[in-house]
Amino acid sequence: MPSTLVSAADPPPAAAAPPAPLLRVEELRVHFHTRDGVVRAVDGVDYAVAPGETLGIVGESGSGKTVSSLATLGLVPPPARTAGGRILFEGEDLLRAPPRRMASIRGRRIAMIFQNPATSLNPILSVGAQLGEILTWHEKASRRDAEARVAELLRLVGITDAAARLRQYPHELSGGMKQRVGIARALLCNPALVLADEPTTALDVTIQAQILDLLADLQSRFGMAMVLVTHDMGVVARMAGRITVMYAGRVCETADARTIFAAPRHPYTRALLESMPRVDRAYAKGARAPLPTIPGRPPNLLNPPSGCRFHDRCPEAVAECRRVLPLETEIAPGHTVSCIRHGSAGIPA
Amino acid sequence: MSAALLEVDSLSKRYPVTRRRLFRARRTGEIRAVDGVSFAIREGETLGLVGESGCGKTTTARAILNLVEPSEGIVRFEGRDIVPVFRAGDRAEVLRVRRSLQYVFQDPWLSLNPRWTIGETLKEPLRVHRPEARATWDARVAELLAMVGLEPHHAWRYPHEFSGGQRQRVGIARALAIEPKLLILDEPVSSLDVSVRAQILNLLVELQDRLGLAYLYISHDLASVRYVSTHVAVMYLGKMVEIAPVDELFAHPRHHYTRALLSAIPVPEPGAAGTRMALQGEVPSATRRPSGCPFHPRCPAALPVCAEVEPMLAGAGPDHRMACHNPAPAREEPSP
Predict the structure, then answer these.
(1) In chain A, which residue's Cα lies nearest the Cα of B266?
(2) Is A298 in contact with B193 (Cβ distance < 8 A)?
(3) Which of B151, B195, B232, B250 is the best mutation test for A, with the most CBs of A within 10 A?
(4) Which of A205, B7, B244, B268 is the most buried (most CB within 10 A)?
(5) pTM for this structure?
(6) Is the bond into B334 cis (omega within 30 degrees of 0)?
């Protein structure tokens, strides 16, 4: 088992409460400063990831799921800026860490697997060069050691003939192969946390199945925690232990995966699950019942709805939902919901 | 059984592979993008065409409409072979065929002219196909907008003012403008968000029930295929490997590729015990197509014969055909 770096030297989490999370995101805000005004893409988001667990973050485009994971690595693209909150990783607030400290965490303690393997690899560097660079940078490894370790990782992610692949360039690899290289790159330094942003969305379904199997297998071997950002409910159901559902820059609901699917409480979670056709269900033709839909469309975050962000599309909304911003409230152990119709506290908006 | 509206018989599209020399290109081989595909669609039916990228779904659809010229095969629409019609190029005749067969594109961002209002976009097919009825165009545009759930005033707006779902509604309205009998829908919901996807799927089903349309629905999203289709055809490397009524195909797939494809879909249910059939390797490049059955190098049930003899599409039950030398048993219950 390769493990050039064991995290013994890293400081223990400062938080007191039982199983101390590896990552705790608190009241995170990321704002895009555009010509038309401030877009509140992430507007007060909380979640936590325990060591070794997989948290699935689901939501539609524009819900803030990708931006909040980029913020963890200090990678929010201009014109976006983190506008508040804390991101505690192993007790250290990453939003206040100096750039050099972030550079040493990024890729070493927290690594990222990107959505599009075709654009996240450097086209003019060979696989061996761009992966080896990470080791020479973070661990001051010699080129020969780096190359041996890269080859080992490539074998681990299921790339046959690893020695030959080291000298190949990204364009010589298929999509599935590139994503395997992307995964190998993320695991090079044996990180404590991997952020995977739609890691299989660009892939065909049989290749997706291979990559998901691979991720699950690697996670059980290396024990790293994972944040899996996706819009695919099938993918989170397979991979995630706990799930956070986001809508319009805020968290609707967080619970363990079984609860989210079997007993969702937030109206948005419920509507999202019901609106998906199921591959394992027969639909009578001729008298097909329409799929339940969510009326309207996601709000413009330049000018988000007052109160609960979902109130204007919500079948259960009451007048109060417009006036009160719901706060995430624990309604059962490990199950938090932000909906005043389902037991959440709220503050006047 | 009513007569087929569209009948595709041994349709093929081949592209030459050439190597450039100093003064001439040398033909070194060919890619069989679509290879002897046959199917039929009856009025009011939807055939779902599924398969992974590069399997020839879109090329099949384009060859039907002569957007790429088929290399071989017959495309019969209402009993008449339309391939020679396109080849002869008589404008009046071509228009007559196109009137009945319309195409809805995958990407509603690329398929609408950004400099035309929605009204102009919807009038374009009328301008081409109904030039004599100019006086009725505006009324027809309003009618079309209502049909797809948009407002009359949207006719004066431009595409950039619309969301993805609304644009796809415009794309559907444009295809319906001249009252076609068959719509080819090429991944119409792939670029849309989940909550909007259901709205568009509902619209497609409602329009079909109301107007008696037939659909050729191309998608890699098998859940939406299950919802909209009456029949499903599975393609792999340009070949059709299996075709059957929708519930038969999902419940009793016989071809091993179909089984692998279905079992690879993650079901939105945590801990769903699926005996997944993990496929080894990836789809080979179309330039290096395996001999015999194109699926044999990845097939868990391959026999020696599979590498040598290409299996033909053969009956596997009522309305169910597949191309496999060693198919899965007929009525065993596979776990999806």
Answers:
(1) A234
(2) yes
(3) B195
(4) B244
(5) 0.87
(6) no
Query: A-chain residues within 8 Å CB-CB of B194?
Result: 60, 231, 233, 272, 275-276
Cβ–Cβ under 8 Å, residues A205 and B220: yes
ipTM of predicted complex? 0.84
Q: B4-17+30-229 has which CATH code? A: 3.40.50.300
Size of interface A-B (CB pairs under 8 A): 131
Please name each of the domains of chain A with its CATH number.
Answer: 18-109+192-277 (3.40.50.300), 123-188 (no CATH)
| Nearest C-alpha in A relative to B44 | A286
**Of chain B residues 234-253, which have a CB less than 8 A from chain A?**
246-247, 250-251
Buried b (16+ CB within 10 A) or exposed e, B316-326: beeebbbbbbe
As a 3-state breakdown, chain B gives helix, strand, coil percent values, each rounded to 5, of 35, 25, 40
Report residue B10 as tokens: 């041994």
Q: What is the pLDDT of residues A54-97, one digit of tens each?
A: 999 999 888 999 999 999 998 888 889 999 999 999 999 999 99
> DSSP assignment of B64-83, as one string?
HTTSS--SEEEEEETTEE-H
Q: Which of A233, A213, A230, A231 has its CA nearest to residue A278?
A: A233
Q: Where are the domains of chain B?
A: 4-17+30-229, 260-336
Between A46-50, A248-252, B274-278, the lowest mean confidence (pLDDT) is in B274-278
Q: Measured between beta carbons, which residues in chain B are less than 8 angstroms from residue A271?
A: 195
